[in-house]
Amino acid sequence: MKFLTSFVITLFGQGVVLVVGFLNAVLITRQLGRAGRGEYAMVSFLVMVLGVLFGEGIHRTNIYFTSKDKSQQNVSALFSNAIVLFGVITVVFAGFSLLPDAIFQLILPGIKRLYIQLGILIALFFIFGRMLQGIFLGLQQFWHYNFAYIGPIVLFFFFDVAYFCVMKHLTTTVVLINYSLAMFVIAVMALLVLIKPWHTPLMIRFRPDWNALKLNLNIGGRATIAYLLLFLLARINLYIVNYTQPLEQVGLFAVAANIGSLIQRVPNVTGVVLFPRVSETEGKKQMKLTLKASALAFSIGLFVSAFFLIWGKQIIIFLYKPEFAESYRALVWLLPGIVVLGIAIIFNTSLWGRGFPAVTLWAPFVAVVTNILFCFILIPSHGIVGASQASSISFFLFSLIIATYYFRKHATS
Question: How many CB atoms within 10 Å of residue 80?
């Protein structure tokens, strides 16, 4: 499938996620208020951290190894290894959910035990879905990938709207239960799409390959660290705000961060399509593909950022209620960093496709440390605006390091 076709299909999927996810976020925010939105934001943060720690490595290696060898034998081995890992993760998460309240409060202060346990359950289904999505992407089956990716968001929104229409209100507990149900249903459906149990003989069989599993874990470990650092670069500020500010401030910052993540959709979707393609190409063709993708991501990111800079406050008040107007000031300081980060994400993804070189580990690490330091300097005096300022500073630093390395590497290769 050509890059442009793949991009359009996946961009359509991301567009659905953007619109539906945004509408659901608006509904949730309006119903839960500042504090409730803060609770939901922190549980979502927990879901993503667990998802990255336990699922992103196998997701990335499934893409990489499937794109290298699309044979039924190899796909069966990768799928079987994923099932084995999922079984181990389930046991670990079961133990995690039984930890005493004191530890839960140390991890997520102010968040109820039930909410954390529901977050763990959501993360479990999320991880399984990511494993399957990696195989779909490696096979370049973008329709299947987008079904597995879009499905939970759409179904989550449907459950929330249905409950709201019947009961006329939403609570944090209801929202999290709906989230977990949506993840579970789509994960099961994606599994059926992949293994095709109605085929005779079966398209995918359970045949673990322990040597391949060791290789997956080895490479997946680097992928996990690289992606975790990138995730923390984008989201660690929310966690620090939760530690240093009331839940109401977390809710305000979460709205600004959510709009920022919407702007990031274009480089994200470009990276999704780019990663398996870069894994297959080399030299000037690879660089041309990366530059084309980065130019597209930058142009669209700049346009959308300018739109929110001009009309962002009115949009926030209209959609989220006037009590969230303070989120706009945080968003303004976040936008410059979001634009440059979009370019860096493309370069970084291209480097991931070349085997996760060391710079994809130390560059985000340096940026995360910088982010944390500036958070503790700026948040006490500037609140959530300081959190956004710290983000933009660290985004610029990360982008400078990655872009410099990328062009020097290609200049000497």
Answer: 18
